[in-house]
């Protein structure tokens, strides 16, 4: 039962712990939950999505940054809730109001899934090599080409692979590059794969591309079957640990495929 403290100016009420919890329960029931309501045009930035995908603590870091960036808005909403839902007696208890602020802040729902639903990023998946120079007319003599044929055996038609190489113009250097768009909950699925040092490719388009020069081949090489590659060493050859990694980058990095080719949105398949 609340304790009434009489003063010459006003009555101040103090509520015990159980009463505070009951008041909190009542407010949460009355307001029906508190949190963000994202519009269809609200989305994560490319930088935020890439952080989620590639950093171990990326997801929690992005969620925390959204909360901190909107702390003034959240505090204002909580103050309005208390103003509208507390009785005059309850408003006199500073400890109660502080308790409720803390609890309501802890119950504030970011509705992150709704924000994620509106978000997407276009990525390039580049298969690196330690070969610094690969003369395109003699590309089929390089170790990189031989490794691609070995690792992707049965994934490409050899004639299509050779056709892609022959179509390459603008540079003497190109990496096998996959490109796709990932959005919504697929971002979290891809994040889990990356965290386990693998990436699974299914129907994504690919080809030879040079992001430093902004040039490449037809980028019309089709996978015939699914393949899972290790990110730290796509060759799986223990003697080739260095430089034979997979680089995952936003397509906006350097000269991107979109900037170079001007693709329609239909060309960016969903991961």
Please give a quick description of this structure.
The chain has 271 residues and is α+β, with helices and mostly antiparallel strands. The chain folds into two domains: 3-116, no CATH class; 119-267, no CATH class. It has eleven helices and nine strands.
Question: What report would you give on this structure?
Answer:
The termini are far apart. The chain is elongated. The strands form three sheets. The protein has a five-stranded antiparallel sheet. A two-stranded antiparallel ribbon has the order 1-2. Strands 5-8 form a two-stranded antiparallel ribbon. Helix 1 packs across helix 6, helix 2 packs antiparallel against helix 3 and helix 4 crosses helix 6. A hairpin with a 4-residue loop joins strand 6 and strand 7. 22% of the residues are buried. The protein has two domains: 114 residues, no CATH class; 149 residues, no CATH class. By secondary structure, it is an alpha+beta fold. The chain is built from eleven helices and nine strands.
Strand content: 15-25%
Would you identify the regions where 5 or more consecutive residues have pLDDT less than 50?
none
Number of strands: 9
Tally of individual domains: 2
* Helical coverage, percent range: 25-40%
Overall geometry: elongated
Q: Helical segment tally?
A: 11
Radius of gyration: 28 Å
Physical arrangement of strands within the biggest beta sheet? 7-6-4-3-9
Secondary-structure element pattern, one letter each: EEHHHHHHHEHHEHEEEEEH
- Major sheet attributes: 5 strands, antiparallel
Instruction: Provide mean pLDDT, rounded.
Output: 91
């Amino acid at each position: 039962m609340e304790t009434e403290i009489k003063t010459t100016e006003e009555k101040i009420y103090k509520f015990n712990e159980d009463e505070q919890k009951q008041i909190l329960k009542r407010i949460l029931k009355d307001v029906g939950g508190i949190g963000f309501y994202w519009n269809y045009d609200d989305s994560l930035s490319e930088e935020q999505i890439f952080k989620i995908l590639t950093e171990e603590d990326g997801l929690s870091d992005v969620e925390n940054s959204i909360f901190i960036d909107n702390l003034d808005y959240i505090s204002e909403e909580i103050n309005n809730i208390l103003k509208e839902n507390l009785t005059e007696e309850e408003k006199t208890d500073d400890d109660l109001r502080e308790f409720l602020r803390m609890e309501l802040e802890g119950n504030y729902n970011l509705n992150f899934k709704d924000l994620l639903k509106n978000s997407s990023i276009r990525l390039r998946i580049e298969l690196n090599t330690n070969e610094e120079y690969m003369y395109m007319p003699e590309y089929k003599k390089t170790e990189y080409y031989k490794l691609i044929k070995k690792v992707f055996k049965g994934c490409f038609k050899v004639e299509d692979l050779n056709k892609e190489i022959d179509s390459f113009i603008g540079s003497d250097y190109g990496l096998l590059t996959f490109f796709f768009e990932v959005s919504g909950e697929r971002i979290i699925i891809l994040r889990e794969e990356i965290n386990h040092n693998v990436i699974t490719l299914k129907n994504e388009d690919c080809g030879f591309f040079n992001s430093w020069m902004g040039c490449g081949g037809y980028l019309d090489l089709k996978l015939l079957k699914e393949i899972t590659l290790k990110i730290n060493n796509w060759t799986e050859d223990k003697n080739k640990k260095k430089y034979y990694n997979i680089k995952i980058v936003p397509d906006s990095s350097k000269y991107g495929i979109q900037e170079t080719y001007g693709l329609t949105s239909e060309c960016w398949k969903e991961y």
